[in-house]
Design goal:
There is one protein chain. Helices cover about 20% and strands about 30% of the residues. It is α+β, with helices and mostly antiparallel strands and about 200 residues long. The protein has an eight-stranded antiparallel beta sheet, with no helix packed on it.
Length: about 200
């Protein structure tokens, strides 16, 4: 009888181990399915192209900090530009994309506004404007401000008439009047960052 009881206990132990192994295998397969599903979602998410420019001052006596992010999805690029210029608190400053990805010589190495379509300078969205004419940013009492823009006129890595990579984001010390040619009389280049 002890033999029969030991045999039942051994059988129960084997059955328990088998069930545990079966459940573990099923759980592993379920995880693999979830992982495959997650991979598909990650691939869809990675279709969004991203670039950014870290903006810093071009003059030792003017603190400028900021960042511009660019995300391309469904044929449009969304830019979010956030800056802080404490010395310009409660004022506005102009922001533009310039044609070269270089910030040397107090931002002058960025050259002129990015204008691949050879249009006159103007306000974004008007009859005539450069592809780099972003606009003016109102700064608060701490000198912080932001601007957002979404457009199908820009790409991240597209052809030369739309590609914003290796261009510079320039912050000017004054405001853009949207009229003066070729650059809106926006003042000196106090901040710069290269789009990468």
């Amino acid at each position: 009888m002890k033999f029969l009881q030991s045999f039942k206990q051994a059988g129960f132990a084997i059955l328990s181990i088998s069930m545990f192994a079966f459940i573990s295998c099923n759980s592993s397969q379920s995880t693999e399915k979830t992982t495959a599903s997650d991979s598909t979602q990650a691939a869809a998410t990675s279709a969004v192209k991203h670039a950014e420019a870290v903006i810093s001052g071009t003059y030792a006596d003017t603190t400028v900090n900021g960042k511009a992010t660019f995300d391309e999805e469904n044929g449009k690029v969304k830019m979010v530009l956030k800056i802080t210029v404490p010395s310009k608190a409660n004022q506005s400053v102009a922001a533009h994309l310039h044609e070269h990805g270089a910030c040397g010589d107090m931002g002058k190495e960025a050259h002129g506004h990015w204008n691949p379509t050879n249009k006159e300078h103007g306000k974004w969205g008007s009859a005539n404007f450069h592809s780099g004419d972003i606009g003016n940013i109102q700064l608060d009492s701490t000198g912080a401000g932001s601007i957002e823009l979404e457009t199908n006129l820009w790409t991240i890595g597209g052809d030369s008439t739309t590609n914003i990579l290796d261009k510079s984001v320039i912050i000017h010390g004054g405001v853009d009047d949207y009229v003066s040619q070729p650059a809106g009389n926006a003042g000196t280049r106090i901040g710069c960052g290269v789009i990468r």
